[in-house]
Amino acid sequence: RRLSHYDYWDDEVRRSILLDAKADMIIYGMGECQIVEIIDRLDKGEAIDSIRDVRGTVVSVKKTDTPADAITLPSFEEVRQSDEAFNKAFRFVYEQMNSRSGRIIAQPHADRCVLELPPALPLSTKELDAVYDLPYTRAWHPSYDSLGGVKGFETVRWSITALRGCPGECSFCSFPIHQGRIVQSRSEQSVLAEAKALVRDPAFKGTITDVGGPTANLYGAACRKWEGNEACSAKQCLMPSKCPSLELGYAKCLALYQAIQRIPGVKHLFLSSGFRYDLLTYPEAERYLKEVCEHYISGQMKVAPEHTEDSVLELMNKPPYRSYEEFVKKFEKLNLRLENRRYLVNYFISAHPGSRLDDALSCAMTLLSRNMRPEQVQDFIPLPMTVSSCLYHTGVHPFSGKRVFVPKEADERAMQRALLQSQNPKSKPLIKKALRILHKGHLLNRFMLHRVSRKGKK
Fold it and tell me: pTM score, two decimals?
């Protein structure tokens, strides 16, 4: 929300939150370097409104004070009125989200100009270690004591963050504009030190619930270009397939997991972060997948196919469905050799731009044919400053210029979700309605039989 953006809840384009909040500055990204630099400069007597050159910050200036070398976006007033200007502004922002070569972005708002400084440089392994080696309390703020604590804390209490950043660039995800496309991994020594600190906690029962980040199997991933704090601007790391220059750190991953398991007091180590399944189909991933399934999955492995229809997946910037099918074959083949079966937790998104009602039905039929009953289905909600947000708001792809169908009506969105979750009793009337609209009433028995079969198994 640091520049003008589409707000789903208000269903309108809003100006930068910097102006709405009447704040002096926004820090975006992970923020550690910015916070330290700003505090040091304030401590030396600089005024906050004179600090205009810190990477990873957003400030407001008079129009006359706009830097001459800044890239000027269409104004807030223009993007609010014009879909074409909205997408043009997004393209400019996207092109400058490179930590090394990015330039200052300026966007006029009435008589002011909002300046976005280039992203902060990715942290080196040494710097990232220093952040995580600080003496955190590993507890909620005392102000929550009177409320009985924070229930959600238990889900991450015994987990370890090992990396940040994601080169995936899924259209609906904000990681590229938050943590960046460059993977930053902690050293094995730093992660082991944190694991030992967990063991010393009197409440620790012996199970570390996660060693991960945005994507569990990208720990240790590297690219020569990343060493210069830059990601390619003309191509992506994982799409349409993995770039040959991207080296996967599977050997480092396994060495780290094994070292943690050897720590006295650690009984179990599990990985609960999601896995990028397409990166598990390459030959170099075979040993990693085998070891992870045998030793580091408590029973469920999280993956995100998101949809089954390639036209929708292409708009999501996700691999084609055949990539998921290839992964499932490898996963099931491994299962035959395991003492205890492992299961996949599959995440899906309903009503993403490009998904028509018949696409949702095709997806549902594919899932039924695989006897899949996804619990994890997310109604698509556009996050500001993402490709999917542009698709949703303008109905036009910001890069290709092609028009895209956008399911916005509440009824249609509800039907798409119901088709994917036919096991939910509340879905029945919505499924009936969807099939009637599509003239596919003969398929109703298939959905109902699926529900009966599931009930019988229970």
Answer: 0.92
